[in-house]
């Protein structure tokens, strides 16, 4: 057939185009009549060299263009485990499908993949596009599945003994687990072959089994985590995990005083019981330790220390009467194990003519009383009529520190009175003592000196009143919309002068309507409606505000603050805690803290939303909030070797009113019992600096790290030099802070605890104190009590404290007057042999000076004042009962 010239030119053009296509990358296949590009693999899922791949993964291969579905068949794709020992590679069976919408071929294995295994995927060059162009070469890639999770820790630990009966049992995993796989069938606790009923929960890589009832004492339990437990990739444990632990034996009462059936017991006798082991002091109280005559209860106080519980009747017992004492089976050791049954014993008091020692039954002021007036007459009441000649200035003493207060002693009825010659001083701690020189009319003396303390009120000037602090503070930001605005005054004000006319709030020129109230020395403005988002507000206290004597503020007091910008509904989270989850060896005076991802509404951070429990028992404490940190300060020391559970509930809200999505729960375990001479700071332990009258940073960028700063009865205005001084992971608390609620009470408790710790350190006698004097520089001292009857120095070299391998070793330095370290060539405190700064206590009878460049260790408990010279650093605490703490220049105080 003859081809026309036009057609000939057409086919020549086509052949040239095909030739060019061949030269510059056309598909090299046998389908010459098809046009188009080659199919290529654009991506795979999992990607090449991916690790940690889920076991139930569907393998996907995405192409650059649509494929011919007919070419997606079994022989087009394979998934294999490559044999590394010369054997045969293993093909993984599964189903191959194709999604034309996304140009994706998918392979679903018939069974979950093996963990921790490398797989090879291969696409064969038989798949083609819709024009018939085939994949030009096999496409091969590899990926590796994830590892099986493991149990990394349990609590109780494997083979541990003496565990609490109310113990929540936990298992921590090496990876995040699927919560639905952590349940009763995968977390099992048995006693022998008997399964224990309980509730299983899972939070933050930790599974918890909470028994429905207390465990049995002296019993071996077996915990099991089955292979049903799987991580978020669906990978189960490689094998079942089991461990065992034992509960502790029940404690018992081993002796009592008076003994059972004892006769002739003194009517002023304190009743005591000694236990076989340390007990949980919180369970020993007037409900569990009782005294009766017949069916009539005897009122009294119950205390517990050093294995011994003591019942002290409020008034002397009746003579020639039989009493029955009972220790109930509700008393428990720190592990939550109770005595097996009530312990009951009886005794009979002496006849009326028996000679007994008198007692001090009450005092005025009471022990640790606060805000005592300057003209107070100090009184002590006795259990018996006393010999008037023995109640005098030699047997009834009053001191302020080491200074004797002069006064007149009188006696009437059963009451001794001390009238100071001049008014007492403002805001100071006084110590009153009735000595054993005091005798009854029968000539019988007190068995021991009776000592108590009290603190006088802070004097108030008759000068012009001032605003000492506000809430919010000046220029504060991120203030909640429902904020109550408060101002604290230096004096008590006339409530009639604190009104909506003298306490105003404006946004720009717009007056905010609200209600003004006054209580104590605090005025409050409560807006009638929520404040606006991101608004700048100006609060004013005018000169119309007057004190009770009619003296007005000298000038208007004005401050500003800015509300928070409306937050989204994103729930805040707890970002970290101290102690961390599952921490061990936590100190018994620990302040528990939680840090949030957002600024929170302080009103929502309370004892209802931040709780601490030991088993099912709630721990009492004070909750405060500052910055983004909530703090829980237990009222009493924690028990040793016990697991505690802290919880932040969903009631905790950010400034927009959005709460946590779920309760945040974590646990920690306290350390073993402290040494007998350990000085327990209790709530005072949260402070790196604590003072009564002033805290100052004179120069430089000083830092207080991971501790708070507190002052009482001094006001916030007495804290100066912050900034440039900064507090890292802590806050300043002053007695006049209006918020957060409870600051004043918290500081009073801390001062009470500090005073008790000071007196304990001052009077410690076990082990027997070693007398020291002068310069201790260049010496090495073993653990113990070291007593100086005057001043003490560390000057001619460093002082080394050697724990000799005992990390719980304790040092107490009893210093009658001043203590000074001299920096330079010496003067630092060096720790060796495992010594811990937290276990070193410097009780100073007057003032302490930490010298230039000194590297100091330990807790200073000073009566009068503490000064840190230039560049002195401390791992410990600077705590003053009566005076001030001064940082001279660029000092550091770090939590021990």
From TrEMBL:
Q: Name one Pfam family in it.
A: Ice_binding
Domain of life per record = Bacteria
- Which UniProt keywords are listed? Signal
Record-linked InterPro entries? Cu-Rt/internalin_Ig-like, Ice-bd_prot, SbsA_Ig
The SbsA Ig-like domain sits at: 39-145, 147-247, 250-349, 356-456, 464-563, 569-670
The entry's family comment says: Belongs to the ice-binding protein family.
Protein's recorded name: Ig-like domain-containing protein
Species source reads Algoriphagus alkaliphilus
